[in-house]
Amino acid sequence: MAAACARTLCKVGWNILESPAARRAGTGSYPVGNVSAHGFRRAYGTGGTGVRAKLLSSLRGGGGRVLGCAFLLGGGLGLYQTVKFNVQQHLAEEETKVSGGGLKLTLYQYKTCPFCSKVRAFLDYHGLPYEIVEVNPVMRKELKWSVYRKVPILMVDGEVQLNDSSVIISSLKTYLISKEKSMSDIIRCYPEMKSVNDRGKEVTEYTNKYWLMLSEAETAVAYREKGMQKEEMKWRQWADDWLVHLISPNVYRTTGEALASFDYIVREGKFGTFEGFFAKYVGAAAMFLISKRLKSRHNLQDDVRQDLYKAVNDWVAAIGKKRKFMGGEHPNLADLAVFGVLRVMEGLQAFDDMMENTKVKYWYRRMERASLNHEGRN
């Protein structure tokens, strides 16, 4: 529509310039300035049927060339803006197609939850735009629509619900690689299974959650070296089954650290005034005691920092000195999982101690840059 209008303006301008009146005006001795200015004021009035006559009068008065040039200039500018807009729109569509196929993603989370942080690390690295709904950890009214009451939950296009951080990451990665599959088809590859654990509590698990649902050809492209897929799956599971359980005992190790941790949680989370006060002081005391039970449950040392240091150094040793990341030149899903888990300790004493007393610093800073710069977008 805009292009058609611009072309019409150009055509009108050219016809005016080519008209006999305009050509005569170019060689005559008419007082162009005064008459053409008068003509324009009259032409843009509300004279009804006299408008055409007044335009012709402008032409005879020597303003034809000026008017024609004005139409040509207006049409040219219109065409330029139309082409510019279409190019920008095309580039935006291509970027959306590359970065996520136009998926509308909404993440329900607790900001300080390591599992939620894993999902954000994946989305940020791949440059996938998403909205965040911060869930109140006390009332959880933001999840009243969902039977599944844990976070993270990722809604895709407002229709497909993805639960469990590892399922979310595997599903999205499969989608990014294998565009012919819909998200609804992909999620069926990760069936939900309910069971009762050794403490008599019902738990929900998902089969295949560390697998990407790819063809042989797609797998060969995604994992170019032998053993890469198996290594990635092993360390993703390690992050879920071991590393994540070292976070709470370390950030709530002492009463002072527990209070500092809950101060951060309240500041970053979604709490009311009373809830925030209650969470900060009562929650800190409760988690200090719970962390002692967690230490016993997971057979941690008396100084839980040593378990954290060992785990992180084991991770760095697995990467080795010849690779920037476990994925080689670029982070893989294991890199993103470990980074997401460790990131929730930033700003706390446990994080500072870890950075000072382990070899993880350089890898961690590379991961920060990769996430911040969305290096996995393409």
What structural class is derived from the secondary structure elements? alpha+beta
**What is the tally of helical segments?**
16
**What is the strand arrangement across the widest sheet?**
2-1-3-4
Q: Find the count of extended strands (DSSP E, 2+ residues).
A: 6
The radius of gyration computed from the alpha-carbon positions, rounded to a whole number of angstroms, is 32 Å
- Beta-strand content estimate: 5-15%
- Mean of residue pLDDT values: 80
H and E string:
HHHHEHEEEHHEEHHHHHHHHH
The percent range for helix content is 55-70%
Low-confidence stretches: 21-56, 66-72, 90-99
Detailed description of the structure:
The chain has about 375 residues and is α+β, with helices and mostly antiparallel strands. The protein has helices at about 1-20, 20-25, 30-45, 50-100, 115-125, 165-175, 185, 215-220, 230-240, 245-250, 255-270, 275-295, 305-320, 335-345, 350-355, 360-370, and strands at about 105-110, 130-135, 155, 160-165, 190-195, 200-205. About 60% of the residues lie in helices and about 5% in strands.
